[in-house]
Every structure is written in structure tokens, then in C-alpha cells.
Amino acid sequence: MSSIHAFSLDDRRVDAGHGAALAVRAPSLDAIGMTKRFGDFTALDHVSLTLHPGTVHALLGENGAGKSTLVKCIMGFYHADAGELRLDGKPLRIANPRDAQHAGIGMVYQHFTLVPSMTILENLTMGLGFRPGRIDWRAERAKLEAFLTTMPFRVPIDSPVSGLSAGEKQKAEILKQLYLKARLIILDEPTSVLTPQEADEMLGLIRSMAIGGQLTVLIITHKFREVLAFADEVTVLRRGRHVGGGRVADLSVADMARMMVGEQASREHAGREEREPGPVMLALREVTALDDAGAPALRGVDLEVRRGEIVGVAGVSGNGQTALVEVLGAQRRHEGTVLVGGDAFGGTREEIRRHNFALLPEEPLRNACVGRMSVGENMAFRHFDRPPIGSGVWVKRGALRRRARELVERYNVRTTGVDAPIMTLSGGNVQRAVLARELSGEVDVLVCANPVFGLDFSAVADIHGQIVAARNRGAAVLLVSEDLDELLELADRILVMSAGRIVYEAARATADRQSIGLHMAGHA
Fold first, then answer.
1. Dihedral of the CA atoms 274, 275, 276, 278 (nearest 10)?
2. Residues 174 and 124: beta-carbon distance below 8 Å
3. In a 3-state reduction of DSSP, which class is residue 466?
4. Which of 84, 93, 228, 310 could make an SS bond with 477 (beta carbons 3.0 to 4.6 A apart)?
5. Is residue 224 helix, strand or coil?
6. DSSP string over 164-211
7. pLDDT exceeds 80 at position 223
8. 451: preceding bond cis by omega (within 30 degrees)
9. Of the ranges 37-51, 418-432, 453-467, 481-495, which one carries the lowest mean pLDDT score?
């Protein structure tokens, strides 16, 4: 764990006078017996949650656990079929998001909502609601400047949002809610696009405001590190029900993980085998490529991946990682050389077979599957023209289904059947199905791009286990991920991409989160 202190409720030290006054400003919220149904499906089943004033409360759960439904009921996007809300102990009726705003409840979403072409001043001023036909911008600027003097952080208010860093945009989103007089803020995966330093800074500032009695915070996150470092209490949902929680100081990561997945059987994470890497299997030499707008996406990229090692590629989104994977998947033209097994590699079907090359791209349903085709047909893409499934121009449907059923069982793909359209599967099960297809034969090179983004805890454990198992069998694995925790857990070496270049490299044993984060931000 990082050096960030994992505060608990007992760590609070507020001045008896000033602190008491501030504490009134941070409200409590009780969600009592919240139930929400969509037809015959119960998304929330009598869920209760208490946010104490001036605390940071984490909400955990797998995909589909009910987290989003609960906060949408609190924000007024949904109307609960049963249950009630209480703000500072008083009944609260929220019919729509405007009611939530009037009650001092705001939400910062996972994806930025500010208008990119407008300045922060314009965004925050327009966010106040109805404005007269003629706006006195000098007066609005003075109001905003006065407001910012009360905040623990600042942003350049006259800069267009499009020119800000991800960290500055996230701060601006939070400032917008505070400017709207929100005193209870819901944060939905607030650090997914931030560097480690930006994430720690942002959550640290939010926590300082909570400790100061200015805010009560509910944070939805999948990162246990953030829960341990910044949250006071935690609530865990599973399948629409409240299944546990308590003070973070009293819980371990294992405790919280167990609450999330229950007693269901889960594959053991494949243990890392200590070994010396073998010969180079994947190499890039001075690879350059343009993005869709014709601007440089890759600028002279050199890297090597050896047998029996996982090389992780870190970077803030938009720094060339997508182009890198597209080049390797023969989906983007490039200059320079790509070598697999020492041979020039262009991504043809014959080259893929000869070199046992496997690829799990980002968003596999869109990039590696045909949604309306069946699970079995998608699993057969690599081998449909080879025995025992294919023979000449004929495909043996019985053999295809038998092979698909074997892979579904071996890779724990949850589906109604191998004839179901793959688009009907959950995100995690699409990932498992594509991994099953790519790893079902001999694999010498495996390229994975954000393989567990947006997936639940058990799916993450399964897929990580499969990646490590491939590495243990001698595959050369290139793992491109925007989740630094994932790379620190899995990779033998970590590279950092910034502005289309490899700017940093560190071995797993000596990898330093702070140094990696600085290079990700381009500040090193």
C-alpha cells in the first residue's frame, strides 16, 4: 500500500468552535429500504445506506450489483418503488435531478460533462441555470474568483476545457458541483482517467474538505487501494442487496472482496512462476503511425517482449496506446518494423497461425467479434477452416458446437448456450469468450489492451489468471492498460507511453508508482 494514510473516523480532529460550525454544513443522508424494479427484475432489494456528516463513504459491488441504480434513485433519475430518503434526519423527496441540486446533492460522473469549447468560467456560470440575455461577465468572474478563494484547489477559469489536463477537468467538475452549493457529492469512478498523482491529489483534497466538515462524499470505485487510503466507511452491494460493510479500518481487502463475490466458486489466480525470460518474441523498431486526423500517434516506438514475461504499457488515455495495439492487429498503417519470432509481421492470417499470435483488443465486442453471430461461431474464428471444425469450404456445425461447449466450460463463460448471439453476453463474458478463442491453442505472443476495463471483481480475477497462466507457459505478453494497479500486479516490466513515445521503463521489482505517474503526466 502507498504511504497515504488510511484515515478512520477516529482520526478526525476538528476545532471545537470553528469545526463545529463547519460540521453543520456537511449533511447526513439515509437511504432506507430502497427498492427498484424494472419489470420482473429487481435491481435494488430493500437497500439501506447511511452517510455520516463529513465522511467519505465507498460503495463497492460487481457490475450489476445495483450501485448505479441506487445513486440514480438518490439523484432523481429513477424513482424508487419503495423506500425513503432522509437528509439530516428529515424526509427528502427527489423527483428529478434539479430537486437533488436544490437539496445540495451533486454528482461527478465517470465521463466529463463540461462543454469542451467553453471556458471554466463559462461552464460554471451557465451551470447555475437560467441566465439573463445579457451576462455581466465581469461580475460573474468576480463571484467565481471569490468562491475559489474558499476552495483548497484552483483551476484556470479563462482556459477552454479542451486544453486542460484530465486532472484539471476532474477538479473543474468538482468545483462545478461546489459552485452549485452541493454539500453532498457522489463521485462515480472519479480516477479512471487520472494519473496516480492526479488521483491521489484529487481524492486527498476531497477528503480534506470532508474532514473539515464542508462535504459528505459517496464514492463509487473498484480500486481497493482508494478505499483503504481515502474512505472512512464502506457499503457493499451484491445482486441488488446490501451484503456488508462497516468501518474501513476494521476491514481487509479480502473481507471486502468476499462480500462482493459471496461464497461462489472463483478460479484461483494463477501464481507467478519465477523464471528468467527467454528469447525476444515480439519487437518493434522505430514504429511510427498517424491517428485518424493525420496527426502523429506513434513516434519512433521501440520495444521488446521476451518469452515468459509480461511487459506492461502504462499511459494516460490518448497517448498512443490505441494506435500501438491497432498496428499490432494490422488495423492501422505504420512505418518501421514489427517482428514476431524474428520475422517481419504484417498481421496476415497465415502469419498469425505460423507465429501463434493472439490478440485481445479493447472493447472486444466491437473489435474482435460479430455481435449477431453465435458464441460458438465467434469462438471458431481462428480455426473454422481447419480440422476438426472445417474441411475445405465446409464447416461441421456439430464439431463447432462441441468445441465451443468445451471452451465455455474451461474458461467459465456464462451463456444460455453456444448458439446464443455473443452480443447477448455481459462484458465480462465476452472478454472470457474472446480469451478462450485466443488462448485455446498454442500461444507464443499475446497482446492485451485494457482487458478488464469496466468488469466486475470475479471477471477480473479470472482474466488476470488466464493472462498470468499464458505467461507461465512461455508466452510473450504485451499488456496495455490505463490501470496502473493492474500493471503493478501483473507485469514483469513496465513501460510508459507519453505523446506517442516510450519515455520510461522499470522492472517490476523496482517500479515506483510516483516515478511512473510523473512520466505518464509528461512531467519527468
1. -140
2. no
3. helix
4. 310
5. helix
6. S-HHHHHHHHHHHHHHTT-SEEEEESTTTTS-HHHHHHHHHHHHHHHH
7. yes
8. no
9. 453-467
Please tell me the number of Cα atoms within 13 Å of 346 on its side-chain side. Answer: 3
Cell digits of residue 340? 514476431
CA 58/CA 256 separation, integer angstroms = 11
Q: How far, in Å, CA of 490 to CA of 486, rounded? A: 6
DSSP string, 384-425: TTSTTTEETTEE-HHHHHHHHHHHHHHTT---S-TTSBGGGS
Q: Is residue 510 part of a domain?
A: yes
In a domain, 461, yes or no: yes
> Global pTM?
0.71
CB atoms under 10 Å from CB of 185, counted, come to 24
Asked if residue 305 and residue 213 are part of one domain, the reply reads no
Task: Give percent above pLDDT 70 in the chain.
Answer: 92
**One domain for residues 217 and 311:** no
415: left (phi over 0), alpha (psi -120 to 50) or beta: beta
Q: What tens digit of pLDDT does each residue of 58-68 get?
A: 999 877 788 98
Other Cβ atoms within 10 Å of 13 Cβ, number:
7
Q: Do 314 and 487 form a contact (C-beta atoms < 8 A)? A: yes
The closest alpha carbon to 176, from 221, 236, 109, 117, belongs to 109
User: Which CATH number does the domain housing residue 79 bear?
Assistant: 3.40.50.300
Q: Please, what sign has the CA dihedral across residues 323, 494, 354, 338?
A: positive
What does the alpha-carbon distance between residue 371 and residue 80 come to, in Å, rounded to a whole number? 33
Place of cell 492485451: 448
The three grid cell numbers given for residue 273, joined into one nine-digit string: 512462476
Specify which residues 507 forms β-bridges with: 493
User: What are the two backbone dihedrals, phi and then psi, of residue 161, each rounded to the nearest 5 degrees?
Assistant: -60, -35
Candidates 64, 140, 38; CA nearest to 457 is 64
Least confident of 290-304, 382-396, 434-448: 382-396
Q: What number of residues does the chain have? A: 524
316: cell is: 494516460
What confidence category does residue 384 fall into, taking pLDDT thresholds of 50, 70 and 90? confident
**Span 453-477, pLDDT tens digits:** 766 677 788 889 989 999 999 999 9
Cell numbers that stand for 100 in this block? 437533488
Domain that holds residue 434: 295-520
pLDDT value for 4: 35
Q: Is the separation of the CB atoms in 477 and 448 below 8 Å? A: yes
